[in-house]
Specification:
This protein has a 7-stranded parallel sheet with strand order 3-2-1-4-5-6-7, with helices on both faces. 40% of the residues are buried. The chain is of the alpha/beta class. The chain is globular, with a radius of gyration of 24 Å. The protein contains 17 helices and 13 strands. β11, α11 and β12 form a beta-alpha-beta unit.
């Protein structure tokens, strides 16, 4: 029987994971939910369908990023020491997902990433965290072929990936229908830090949104999660026609996105949500783009402020077609045991390496004879270089080597060192 630890500390990730947890339990698997975050956010996650959390770690009030990460690592180490887990399921890129994946790598537990491969602008901090979290995985479920190719370009093995489509349509169907709004509106959902880092740029963005919304006679309501703190930090007022949805919880914001006349966003997740809900969507400039949704007409691109009014009018006039994607959840459940089966590979990240030939001598510094290094090792080195992560704290090759070496020795742990001298220092 599969015994899975499902980690989440974000309402948006909990919404997608809720259906996965219910389906796993219905199939006979043991799926335990580990929540890392505030009680208020956990209550909202339950409103979005997340089953009861089996393990809860409450963050200290006012904890900074360093404290959050240390607490997350401790929590993950405590949970992963409680028994033999078949694997850890993570989604998103928050501190808890990254810490749980990292600790699981260190103790040799499989990490399955849901919704992997989403990328945005290279300078965006969310994009960087997503990449780090994805690289803690030993298997990956992705929504599109493009996201699979993104992971492959970073050196991750294609044989450990499965394209399942979006989990959102099934997650939405599990919720009651949202209340009908009193009047049509535009929903502005800014999720990333990049658009709100620059005061002049944010002011221009909001002014363009307000002007375009007036041209189609629609008011704008804005999610306060990211935008609210940014307005306060930058001492910036909203232009006329835009109101901030202060106090609206995660469920209320989800219902707003589902019932909006048009959704404006910088988030790939909201693009997916709009397509699943059948809501016209316009993507803000410089945002990660779901090109498959743009190609299908579910999303439109806003290239410049002068074009937004036209783009909004076009989106309203031509709403997206009904979502007809195959059921992602059934595919995920069928493939999960395959990906969690004990790997048969000898090299890191699932890449096969040749068995050493018998009877070969030891090589010298100036003689390559007797070595078993070949094209497989060249490919692995190239994959590490292409990944851009050339250290063992965030990369995956060293931890995979440590795990395999420990198994070969029959030891619980092995620690790789940069030199023989460093190994002696560690031993002493």
């Amino acid at each position: 029987m599969l015994r899975l630890l499902v980690v989440t500390g974000s309402c948006s990730e909990a919404f997608e994971l809720a259906g996965v947890v219910r389906a796993l339990r219905a199939s006979g698997a043991e799926a335990k939910v580990a929540w890392f975050g505030s009680d208020a956010a956990l209550a909202e996650a339950h409103q979005l369908g997340l089953p009861h959390a089996d393990f809860v770690h409450r963050l200290p009030a006012g904890a900074g990023p360093a404290v959050r990460y240390v607490e997350a690592v401790r929590f993950a180490a405590e949970l992963l020491a409680t028994g033999e887990w078949s694997g850890v399921l993570t989604a998103g890129c928050d501190t808890w997902a990254l810490a749980a994946g990292t600790v699981a790598n260190q103790v040799g537990t499989a990490v399955v990433r849901l919704g992997a491969g989403q990328r945005g602008a290279a300078a965006d901090r969310t994009q960087q965290r997503r990449r780090l979290a994805d690289h803690t995985g030993t298997a990956w479920f992705v929504a599109t072929e493009m996201q699979a190719r993104q992971l492959q370009s970073e050196g991750l093995p294609s044989e450990r990936m499965r394209v399942v489509g979006s989990l959102l349509p099934e997650a939405l169907r599990a919720l009651p229908a949202p209340p009908t709004p009193s009047a049509p509106f535009v929903w502005l959902a800014i999720e990333h830090a990049q658009p709100v880092d620059d005061r002049v740029g944010l002011a221009a963005l909001l002014a363009g949104v307000a002007d375009a919304a007036r041209s189609v006679s629609l008011p704008v309501r804005a999610a306060a999660t990211v935008l609210g703190p940014a307005l306060e930090r930058l001492a910036l007022a909203l232009p006329e026609g835009i109101t901030l949805a202060n106090g609206a919880g995660a469920r209320a914001q989800l219902d707003a996105a589902r019932t909006a006349r048009v959704l404006l966003t910088d988030s790939a997740g909201h693009q997916d949500l709009a397509a699943a809900a059948g809501v016209p969507c316009v993507v803000l400039p410089g945002s990660p783009v779901r090109t498959d949704l743009v190609a299908s007409g579910a999303c439109r691109l806003w290239a410049s402020p002068t074009e937004l009014a036209t783009t909004l009018a076009q989106a309203i006039a031509s709403p997206p077609r009904a979502h007809t994607a195959p059921p992602a959840l059934a595919t995920l459940l069928a493939e999960l045991p395959v990906l969690l089966a004990p790997p048969t590979f000898a090299g890191p990240n699932g890449l096969a390496a040749p068995a050493p030939a018998a009877g070969l001598g030891l090589p010298s510094d100036a003689d390559a004879s007797g070595r078993t290094l070949g094209e497989d090792e060249v490919a692995l080195a190239a994959a590490a270089i292409r990944s851009g992560t050339l250290n063992s704290t965030r990369g995956t090759f060293v931890t995979a080597f440590e795990r395999r070496f420990a198994e070969w020795l029959g030891s619980r742990h092995a620690i790789a060192c940069a030199s023989g001298s460093a190994a002696v220092h560690c031993a002493i």
